[in-house]
Amino acid sequence: MSESLLPPPGRPSQAPPRLSDAPPGPDGKPRSRTLVATDRLTKYYRVRSGWLSRNAEPLRAVDNVSLRVRRGETMGLVGESGCGKSTLGRLLLRLIEPSYGRVVYDGRDITPLSAGELRPLRRKMQIIFQDPYSSLNPRMTVREALLEPIEIHKLAETKSDAQQMIAELLRKVGLRPEMMDRYPHEFSGGQRQRIGIARALAVKPEFIVCDEPVSALDVSIQAQIVNLLSDLQEELGVAYLFISHDLRIVEHMSHRVAVMYLGHIVEQGPVEALYDGAMHPYTRALMGAVPSPDPQKKRLRILLEGDTPSPLAPPSGCSFHPRCPRMIPGKCDKTTPELAELVPGSGHKVACYAPHTG
Amino acid sequence: MKAERAVPGTLRRALSEVRRKRGASVGITAFAMLLLVAIFADFFASPLPVYGTVRGHTYVLANVTRPRELQSMSHAELEAELARGFALRALVHWGPAETGTAVLRPPLASAGHVLGTDSDGRDVFSVLVHGARVVVSFALLCVALLVAFGALVGALGGFFGGVFDAIVARSVETMTAFPTIVLVLAFQAMMPKASTLTLLLAISLTRWAEVARLVRGEVIAVSGQDYVLAARALGASPLRILVRYVFPNARAQALVSATFALATVILVEASCDFLGLGIEESSPTWGHLMAQSRHHPGAWWLLAFPALALLGTVVSQNVVGEALRDALDPRGDVLAERPVDEAPEQGTAARSP
Ligand SMILES: Nc1ncnc2c1ncn2[C@@H]1O[C@H](COP(=O)(O)OP(=O)(O)OP(=O)(O)O)[C@@H](O)[C@H]1O
Ligand SMILES: [Mg+2]
Fold first, then answer.
1. What CATH number does the domain containing B11 carry?
2. Would B342 be classed as within a structural domain?
3. pLDDT of B86-121, one tens digit each?
4. CB of A83 closer than 6 A to ligand 1?
5. B contacts of A138 (beta carbons < 8 Å)
6. DSSP letter at A245?
7. Range of the domain at B152
8. Which pTM does this prediction carry?
9. Is residue B98 part of a domain?
């Protein structure tokens, strides 16, 4: 499989949306509320159908995603497995190259930057992974793992400064500094996840992509890690893109939530609006699959019919239409609905021709 | 205690695991013995004494230092001189190149020749022992060369990908499709003058591909790990990732392939000697000894002893290689790696089943 830069999706050239509506910050410099924004971000993978076949079919892992994460807030990102959540998270940090579209970080387009130009910006954005077993190098002690960011960005003048920073980081994530010289295999999953968080925090980031940070953990430990992340946000003002397929954890963590389906954002909005008044049939179906802890809230239960279509051959029109109970023939299967606010100013956007309202 | 602290998938842990396997420790012992014989060949077979007085002059370690006065004496003269006083001798009193009058004698048939003599009256034991030295040093040099080259090419291809990797992958596929021996013989036959040097090149040029294949696979596996992605997210340069993450992982794999390569190189070298396309006739090797048996079919000892030495060497190498490979297999680690107790975390609630 190889990545390729395919021609941009056929879309009339329109003025790119303004991404940095910048009110002046406390120091007089323009300081936008928007920290990270994507502009029609798209990632195609080229998947060869056979080892000799020349015509590689494009797989649309992320398709035309425009998203904003504000300073200090948590943006939840939910969706079924394989819908492109991780790909989107990695695109935001430019750990993979987009096929099309832009990523704007703090008002600056980072898409054309070279690796060297990007390095200082790497301090500001970090990532935490799902699997605590593959996210730490088995050959590095905790000390070595945490020394890595300090060395790369020359964050400490002396060895003892670095030492103190490492101890401080460990304390911050609830580990004892005496554990510094242990190897990852001597820790439990939850402890490893804490080490991963400490590593991300070492550079004092403003933005962290949390790619299903608790999915691999025990339920009791999940709560601890989620609480740790919340506490750190309160203390450090860091913004999260919180990826999960556990809707309850997302509800608990997020200020705003985006719902992804087959590489598209189909609905997005403030957490209350989305959980209490989901408009997209897919979002409703997802929520129907969650047993509600609160019997007061009545949630419509729609059973999703059929499997997720392959992103290799996405359906025409709205990609959800083959499974959608509210599909309008001749419309939903012909044209793709735009993500737009139904009530202007509500911040609740949906990409649907037949949204649930009221 | 130490084994528990060792990091899974590392050399140290693998070696400690390998030591615990009986087959592997037999293999390691056999290889160690071969090395000892190769290094101390002069103590096993040499006409010159370890310590001895010849014509009023006392020599220490003459078998190693080879003083000219002693080397110029004939075998009979030297034997007579040494018999006169006290002398500490090598195990066998014949050098590998020394020819004698006792030609094609079977083992134990003539005094001083435990394993018999060859068609020129050379002592078979002496040729075997000194042949071990030639074989081992040739093989080590050759393996060092091909592993260094193969590992570098494989690591860079796997790490950077792209056109270079495509070329690496295709050439590895092509090279590994042919048996090493066929390519080496073709190469040697093509040379205007086949020599030890061309043999070294021929084997290195054909056998690096196997090493590159293993190392490349390992590097690709490592590069896909989240911790490498985390390092990239932290701003680590490709060089840093290569040096701190990729090479340490590839090192273990390189050692495994080196062990297997050693066996192949020794076998291929002996085959070339047997066919007269290998190391110069003047150097004693196992292959040359076996080659003589083609003209003297009755002299079974010319074939049997070097063949046994070869078999023992190759089998022990493979046993060690396999044990190392198993010990380094990360799949074997996964279960052992998880801590037995999910260590207590602050405020842990009761665990749901
Ligand atoms: N390197 C790659 N080459 C080809 N296809 C890829 C690659 N990485 C991801 N994909 C494909 O892109 C799609 C989106 O993958 P992604 O990992 O982003 O999904 P996800 O939403 O994170 O899923 P999960 O919940 O399982 O983590 C999938 O269909 C996947 O197979
Ligand atoms: Mg994922």
1. 1.10.3720.10
2. no
3. 889 989 889 898 888 888 788 887 888 889 888 888
4. yes
5. 7-10, 337
6. S
7. 3-41+125-334
8. 0.77
9. no
